[in-house]
TrEMBL record:
It comes from Steatornis caripensis. This is ECHD2 protein. GO terms for cellular component: mitochondrion. GO terms for molecular function: enoyl-CoA hydratase activity. The keyword Acetylation does not apply. InterPro entries: ClpP/crotonase-like_dom_sf, Enoyl-CoA_hyd/isom_CS, Enoyl-CoA_hydra/iso, Enoyl-CoA_hydra_C. Pfam families: ECH_1. Belongs to the enoyl-CoA hydratase/isomerase family. It comes from the Eukaryota.
Amino acid sequence: LRFDEKVRVVVFKSEVKGVFCAGADLKERAKMDDAEVGHFVKRLRNLMDEIAALPVPTIAAIDGYALGGGLELALACDLRVAASSAKMGLIETTRGLLPGAGGTQRLPRCVGIGLAKELIFTGRQIDGQQAVSMGLVNHTVPQNNEGDAAYQRALTLAKEILPQAPFAVKMGKLAINRGMEVDIASGMAIEGMCYAQNIPTRDRQEGMAAFREKRPPQFIGK
């Protein structure tokens, strides 16, 4: 996906009705020794980092349970859409654990430190309506009979992104992600570097030409 230039947006969905991702298989985990658990969680953390580092926008379509590592997967995405009936939570403390695949870092960056601490300390599960009110998800929708309402809304969101200049979107994602980790002056410098890379693109020239000619732009990602 990272190297396929035809990919504009990636949507993560589940093929299991009622479940986005239920997290770790604790029966499997119980058979591991301490070293194996540490290795497993490190690999899982690396996977989430790989997802977060995808250059194109990513959307998690949460149509059911997103618990523990399942919510960490959704947090690794850029955008999240949830069915109002979906259940989300970093429930690790209820099992004697703590989030180990990015949850302690991505949740506070998403909803703020106070809310993140409350959700992690209590292991509480929240529904889609609560999640959208605290900024954990971008949109919430009533579930449909097919059980894929969040996926359908995610597709609609993806189709809003598709017509936009691909390279500009990639640079926007990079500037936001890198800029959020530094002070604002350094962030401005990062934005400037990303903007400079976009100036010579054919898509920028096409965008200006389309504006002058009062027609929709035809971006090619170059």
